[in-house]
Amino acid sequence: MVQVGLLEDNARIAKLCATMLQYAGHHVTVYEHPRECLDALLTEVAGRHVLPSRSIITKQPDSLPIDVLILDLHLPDITGIEVLHSLRANMRTRSLPLIFCSAATPTEVASALSIAPRACFIEKPFTYQELVAGITNVLQSTH
C-alpha cells in the first residue's frame, strides 16, 4: 500500500482519482488547495505521537505523510509549477516522487518535467490502468 497525496482542485476528478487509488489498495490524502498541500508537506512533523493506547510511536522528523504526490498543473491561486518549485526547493520534499495529472499544454508539461525529470505525466482524461501504472512507474524510477 502506498500513501498517495492528491492535489486536484476539481472535486469530481479528485473523488474519481481517490476512489480508483483506494480500489487499487492505496491510501489517499486529498489536498483541496495548493496551500493546504504545501503546509502539510513543508511543515516539520512532530517527532513523537501518543496513541490512544498510551503507547508512543517515534516517527522520523523528516518523514512525509505521503509516498507520492499526484499534482494537477492547473490550480487556483498558486499554479502547479509554483507548487513544484516550492517542493523542489525544500530538502524534505526535494525527492518526493511526483505524477503530473493534467490537461496541460505540451509546453507546460515540458516545463514541469524540466524541474522534476523523474516525474510521470498522465494526461486527463485518464484510465484506471494509467493511474495505477503511474504510481508503480514513478516509484520504480525513484528507487
From TrEMBL:
Q: Where does the record place the modification 4-aspartylphosphate?
A: 72
Q: Which GO terms describe its biological process?
A: phosphorelay signal transduction system
Q: Which UniProt keywords apply?
A: Phosphoprotein
Report the SMART domains cross-referenced here.
Answer: REC (SM00448)
Domain Response regulatory: residue ranges:
3-139
Matching entries from InterPro entries are given as: Bact_response_regulator (IPR050595), CheY-like_superfamily (IPR011006), Sig_transdc_resp-reg_receiver (IPR001789)
Stated name of the protein: Response regulatory domain-containing protein
Highest classification ranks of the organism: Bacteria, Bacillati, Chloroflexota, Ktedonobacteria, Ktedonobacterales
